[in-house]
């Protein structure tokens, strides 16, 4: 990290907090949080149990701070410094040509995520909703939700690419997810003007402001279309019956594709749209009986990409890639990195810990994918390296404790 990204002097040095006379440098708290995520410890209390490890002396240059101090300082961190650190990692990877595009297109994936929910714990940044229950009646539930943008991994012969988490934006009270996404995209496009060409999103973002915003900034959208009430949906339903599909394949699936460009049935959108339908047939083996059956799924996407920019097959592949990125990016962050854990229930602390998790995720995957040789990686899942880091810290803490025991 120090050799390639100049971690201490460049990535972390820009991060500050709002303490007036700090006794513990901000960099100490941020580096401690990075180790917390790399080792997948899962909580500040778990981090504090290994505070006696000699590892912290070499990594931090001093003893580790307490769990309470970690939480309190993250509530005061300047999130812009964390975003600058993530951008610094992106710049280095871009200069090293480690972020190839996907057949000439840079692709980003937009997704909303609810981090946690509670009927008791709440803070000034919590959203609220009423949960109806026959047994317990109506109750107010408090929760946090954010919108995240991730750069999809590209493809280059002989090289394994990585996905990069770019930024997040917390959703505000009385605001929908699409409005949060536009605020996020405005900041990201200013910081990463050439990082991507097209944004993939689910059906929730099939709104005119979303398409118009991206078109005004020279970017394209590719969104799942599910709203049967829209005129454009009704128009293409009629066209599906009149036009014969083209045959194709996506992975092991036999596909029938319909492609209708230059549609103007959505007058609120200022640019022509293109609708693609994919009916896919694939074999599934039933787990209980072992019987192989044929199943069919149907997808409809609406995009501003022109046929000259992306073929039908390519658009269908990009549409499916949104699921791949969500499974290997967003879901991995939640299930494998404990990013949903509330390390301190305070709006700025929640945002700071998530951005630190993004930074840790990007650095970890850059190291595993781009630094380790294939022979070393072979046969070892990514969690192996996280457990190796954790084992180093725990073993060191245990040895130090034993040495001091009577």
Q: Let me know the number of strands.
A: 10
Poorly predicted residue ranges:
400-406
Straight-line N-to-C gap: 38 Å
What is the SS-derived class? alpha+beta
Report the C-alpha radius of gyration, rounded: 24 Å
Major β-sheet annotation: 10 strands, mixed
Mean pLDDT: 91
Oligomer: single chain
SSE pattern, N- to C-terminal: HHHHHHHEEEEHEHEHEEEEHHHH
Q: How much β-strand is present in the residues? A: 15-25%
The shape is globular
Helix content: 40-55%
Number of helices, where a helix is a run of at least 4 consecutive DSSP H or I residues: 14
Write the topology of this structure.
Elements: H1 2-5, H2 7-11, H3 26-38, H4 44-49, H5 55-60, H6 67-74, H7 79-95, E1 107-118, E2 127-131, E3 139-151, E4 164-170, H8 177-191, E5 198-201, H9 208-216, E6 220-224, H10 231-242, E7 246-250, E8 253-263, E9 273-285, E10 292-303, H11 312-337, H12 347-371, H13 374-377, H14 382-404
Parallel strand pairs: 1-5, 5-6
Antiparallel strand pairs: 1-3, 2-3, 3-4, 6-10, 7-8, 8-9, 9-10
């Amino acid at each position: 990290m120090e050799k390639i990204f100049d971690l201490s002097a460049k990535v972390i040095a820009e991060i500050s907090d709002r303490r007036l006379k700090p006794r513990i440098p901000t960099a100490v708290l941020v580096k401690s949080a990075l180790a917390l995520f790399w080792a997948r410890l899962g909580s500040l209390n778990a981090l504090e149990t290994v505070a006696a490890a000699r590892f912290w002396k070499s990594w931090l240059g001093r003893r580790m701070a307490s769990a309470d101090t970690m939480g309190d300082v993250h509530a005061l961190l300047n999130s812009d410094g964390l975003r600058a650190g993530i951008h610094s990692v992106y710049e280095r990877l871009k200069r090293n040509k480690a972020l190839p595009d996907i057949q000439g297109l840079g692709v980003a994936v937009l997704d909303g995520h609810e981090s946690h929910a509670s009927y008791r714990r709440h803070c000034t940044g919590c959203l609220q909703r009423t949960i109806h229950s026959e047994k317990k009646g109506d109750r107010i539930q408090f929760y946090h939700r954010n919108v995240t943008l991730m750069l999809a991994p590209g493809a280059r012969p002989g090289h394994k690419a990585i996905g990069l988490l770019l930024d997040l934006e917390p959703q505000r009270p009385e605001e929908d997810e699409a409005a949060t996404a536009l605020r996020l995209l405005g900041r990201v496009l200013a910081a990463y003007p050439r990082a991507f060409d097209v944004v993939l999103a689910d059906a929730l973002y099939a709104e005119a402001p979303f398409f118009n915003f991206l078109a005004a900034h020279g970017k394209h959208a590719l969104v799942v279309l599910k709203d049967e009430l829209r005129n454009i949906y009704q128009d293409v339903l009629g066209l599906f019956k009149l036009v014969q599909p083209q045959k194709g394949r996506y992975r092991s699936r036999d596909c029938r594709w319909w492609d209708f460009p230059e549609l103007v049935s959505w007058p609120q959108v200022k640019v022509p749209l293109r609708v693609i339908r994919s009916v896919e047939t694939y074999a599934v083996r039933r787990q209980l009986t072992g019987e192989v059956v044929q199943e069919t799924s149907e997808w409809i996407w609406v995009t501003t990409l022109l046929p000259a920019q992306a073929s039908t097959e390519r658009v269908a592949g990009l549409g499916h890639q949104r699921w791949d990125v969500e499974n290997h990016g967003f879901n991995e962050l939640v299930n494998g990195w404990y990013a949903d854990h509330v390390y301190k229930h305070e709006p700025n602390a929640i945002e700071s810990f998530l951005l630190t998790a993004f930074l840790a995720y990007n650095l970890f995957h850059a190291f595993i994918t781009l630094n380790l040789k294939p022979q070393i990686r072979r046969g070892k899942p990514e969690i192996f390296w996280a457990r190796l880091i954790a084992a180093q810290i725990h073993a060191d803490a245990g040895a130090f404790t034993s040495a001091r025991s009577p």
